[in-house]
Request: fold
Amino acid sequence: MPFFATALAALAGGGATAGATSTVASVWGALGVGQKAAVFGKIAGGIKGFFGGRRDEANKRAERRMYRKYANQATSALQAQIPEEQQYASQRSQFLRERGEFKQATILDSYERNVEKMDMGVGTTGMAYGADENLRRGNLLDAYQNQTGVAQLAQEEQYMGIQRDYQSRLRDIEGKMLDVQRYAADKGVVFGVNKGKISPEQNQTNFGGYR
Reply:
């Protein structure tokens, strides 16, 4: 028994008789009652330290498993928010596109009614288009093209705003995942290199095809 032999070796020099042999049995027989009690004390202390150390390590491993479990759950919950954010961006984009299509249709309808009104005026007088009428018709076309261009530009700017908002929300999610990772690391839990990071695919959206 290592603890027993070590304890005897520690006491052999100070309490063993000159004629005692080097064997454990002879050394033990040479010890007095007080020395034997001291040996038992060392043995008990060694056993306690050995099993206490193993118990502490087991507790630490169990604690790390617990922190890993909670960190994984928190990270998974944050990751689950990304598809929700993508869907929200797509819904906003769909609404924006439908509103833009309505705006373009309204502009086109106004242009066609103005052209029709001009044609009816020319038809009533029985006169062909003159220079003034051609100029007015050209002005109507220019106004129509300008209006559609302005509406399209405004729509593109709104798309960019949706994209910026989406990426801002992703950065917030990524920041929270990295906070979880740092907290877990402080508790001895090590994650993979890409754990808690937003992938390039997640960082982009086609707005659900509505752009």
Summary: The chain has four helices and no strands.
